[in-house]
Amino acid sequence: MDGYAIRSQATVTASPNSPVMFLVTGTIAAGDDPCVARTAGAHVEYDRDGGLQTCVEIMTGAIFPDEYDACVKVEDTVPVFEPTRRRGAHILVTRPVPPNANRRSAGSDILKGDVVVEKGDTIQLSHMLPLASLGLGAIPLERKPRVGIWSTGNEMVNGNGSTRDANGPYLTAAVRYMGLPAHFLGVLDDEPASLRRHVEMAAASGQYDVLLTSGGVSKGRFDHVRAAVDEMGGEAVFHGLSIRPGHPVLFAMLPGKGGKTAFFGLPGNPGAAAACFRFLTVPYLREFQGQARELPVLAKLLRRPGTSGEKHSCSANQDTDCFRHGILSTSAAGQLMVEASAEQSPSKLSPFKAANCWIHFRPESSATIPGPGGSGLVECYPASPTGGVLLSPNLCN
Amino acid sequence: MDGYAIRSQATVTASPNSPVMFLVTGTIAAGDDPCVARTAGAHVEYDRDGGLQTCVEIMTGAIFPDEYDACVKVEDTVPVFEPTRRRGAHILVTRPVPPNANRRSAGSDILKGDVVVEKGDTIQLSHMLPLASLGLGAIPLERKPRVGIWSTGNEMVNGNGSTRDANGPYLTAAVRYMGLPAHFLGVLDDEPASLRRHVEMAAASGQYDVLLTSGGVSKGRFDHVRAAVDEMGGEAVFHGLSIRPGHPVLFAMLPGKGGKTAFFGLPGNPGAAAACFRFLTVPYLREFQGQARELPVLAKLLRRPGTSGEKHSCSANQDTDCFRHGILSTSAAGQLMVEASAEQSPSKLSPFKAANCWIHFRPESSATIPGPGGSGLVECYPASPTGGVLLSPNLCN
């Protein structure tokens, strides 16, 4: 604090009627050597003979001189302007000042051995203050997975019709949202040889840890992704899951330079590609970086998807994990609430204008049944995968 | 859907006992011109004389040919392998197919005149799907404010003591977290002339819309920021607010190239600098970009800061707005809860390891009083200012 460094013992008897006078012998500002008080402003000669207690003016952030043990705030002192006391500035203290008052010990914030960031933590903005205050200009981070992304589909290549590639821009942005390098590698046509050549070359290059395609993983006559993976010696870990949307999804390990490359064959329907990315690819990318498993928040379900019995409803007796987009909000009482988007067709992108979360309906879970008999709570995840924005190893850049 | 494009009218009488046979005249895949069905696979000659209904094999994503009005899914058909029907492939349909079945109209997702992004919205990941599906490769954005940041204080310049600059790395990261360009311009010593020269040059350069310093805004002998602002002809909008922490904060407009430059003189104590940035600078930067005012979430207060009557407690009778960091979480019932960090001294950075929100205690607000007589709810803001990660005008990069 801005004030005067004193010996607290000298103020024990101080009172308005019997103040204690101090001789100000100099000033120590933040950044000054505490052994060399600035005296230029004070023009002091030490008044050793007068028997006065000495003090030093001290500024917030200055290092405390050894010979004093407390700081009296400037507003708790009375300056003395007596013309006879010509040898320097003097102050009066009118109340006892406790030992260590307004003085902070080095190391009182973060102690040796304290953990600031756990292994696996993602550096968040709030971490910057304690890390930088410790002088840690750089900290070791996990290597970031590098992601390559293609879209597939003749309809987006040859100009017949007006289908636009939404998956490519979306998936590229989503990976970057996680703070990871993403390269969009183009839209491939539905030719098996071309597909295989592109994916095989990228895996062999050693430039990518994860490769993504969207489209071409169903069982139709023009769905060539699985065949391309098989032909290049890839190992399918799963092809088809009991999830909606996204059931045709493929996950494989491809042979490549210096090890295997993970490959996600996402469905082509944009809503399905987004759901598979969020619930399959994001956990993989987190695990790759040593991050902890993401936990959902629980929210009260205001509206089931497709309550009127449409095909995108999630019945409680389903044997399928359902992923539904929706809007998460809080009530005036601080209760988390979620409303599934009314339109859940994976080809409809309009609801994504407003959706801010994904709801995970687990199979046959009574927890997802609203009203009596069920808790009415569902598991929600933010629509944008969190974390990683500050994943620069150099904190000062 | 993968299936066959047919005339639905022809299936009205279809049943397992009386199926309707169709001649497959070709294939239309996604991306194909619908007027030129691929016939290579089918080797078809039209069997006009046989009087059979024709159909075309069609793939998901393909454009529907005009002469048909519904798609029968491949799994709802029976292929015919009769050797006598040598002229092409045939299928049987055993159930009526409604008009428009499994067929989607162009424009059924987002209509002309629909608003995808409102003026003032921040582009979020979820916006990418509808925007990209419309073929919008670029959209007009507000200009991003450019921010220059200094720390001040001799103690971080001349090597006396071990005080590290935490504010510089923190504020730089915080601005970047908002998706804005931030330049850390260094640590300035407490010399009025040097301070003035640096700030004046930066304002005159026209390279910054907002300039930030931390430190040197109190009323002490070494607090030169206000004087520097006055001397360069800056106009103080406010200097000192009834807030804790951060009451010495200064906001001014500086003369500069092509208009005025906003200047925030933040306090030096890191907790106070962070609070002032979050509650004063962030709203300014949002307003600059035309973004809507940020709304707090309401959470149940589990612990008041400093319940034992310490100086960092926030009494309900205060006349001051208090900003306290804390931990926001959700209960198993989906209730938002917040616990103020036990240590609230603005010089203590250890609590920032765990803090994920700021709590705003308004003066004399009964809403902030827990238990009977008060709602027990407080206003919370995420510790990291949200938004802006994807503020790249080119969606495809």
TrEMBL record, chains A, B:
<dbReference type="Pfam" id="PF03453">
    <property type="entry name" value="MoeA_N"/>
</dbReference>
<dbReference type="InterPro" id="IPR038987">
    <property type="entry name" value="MoeA-like"/>
</dbReference>
<dbReference type="Pfam" id="PF00994">
    <property type="entry name" value="MoCF_biosynth"/>
</dbReference>
<dbReference type="GO" id="GO:0005524">
    <property type="term" value="F:ATP binding"/>
</dbReference>
<dbReference type="InterPro" id="IPR001453">
    <property type="entry name" value="MoaB/Mog_dom"/>
</dbReference>
<dbReference type="GO" id="GO:0061599">
    <property type="term" value="F:molybdopterin molybdotransferase activity"/>
</dbReference>
<feature type="domain" description="MoaB/Mog">
    <location>
        <begin position="148"/>
        <end position="288"/>
    </location>
</feature>
<keyword id="KW-0500">Molybdenum</keyword>
<keyword id="KW-0808">Transferase</keyword>
<dbReference type="GO" id="GO:0061598">
    <property type="term" value="F:molybdopterin adenylyltransferase activity"/>
</dbReference>
<comment type="similarity">
    <text>In the C-terminal section; belongs to the MoeA family.</text>
</comment>
<dbReference type="InterPro" id="IPR005110">
    <property type="entry name" value="MoeA_linker/N"/>
</dbReference>
<dbReference type="InterPro" id="IPR036688">
    <property type="entry name" value="MoeA_C_domain_IV_sf"/>
</dbReference>
<dbReference type="GO" id="GO:0006777">
    <property type="term" value="P:Mo-molybdopterin cofactor biosynthetic process"/>
</dbReference>
<dbReference type="GO" id="GO:0046872">
    <property type="term" value="F:metal ion binding"/>
</dbReference>
<comment type="similarity">
    <text>Belongs to the MoeA family.</text>
</comment>
<dbReference type="GO" id="GO:0005829">
    <property type="term" value="C:cytosol"/>
</dbReference>
<protein>
    <recommendedName>
        <fullName>molybdopterin adenylyltransferase</fullName>
        <ecNumber>2.7.7.75</ecNumber>
    </recommendedName>
</protein>
<keyword id="KW-0460">Magnesium</keyword>
<keyword id="KW-0501">Molybdenum cofactor biosynthesis</keyword>
<dbReference type="InterPro" id="IPR036425">
    <property type="entry name" value="MoaB/Mog-like_dom_sf"/>
</dbReference>
<comment type="function">
    <text>Catalyzes two steps in the biosynthesis of the molybdenum cofactor. In the first step, molybdopterin is adenylated. Subsequently, molybdate is inserted into adenylated molybdopterin and AMP is released.</text>
</comment>
<keyword id="KW-0479">Metal-binding</keyword>
<dbReference type="InterPro" id="IPR036135">
    <property type="entry name" value="MoeA_linker/N_sf"/>
</dbReference>
<comment type="pathway">
    <text>Cofactor biosynthesis; molybdopterin biosynthesis.</text>
</comment>
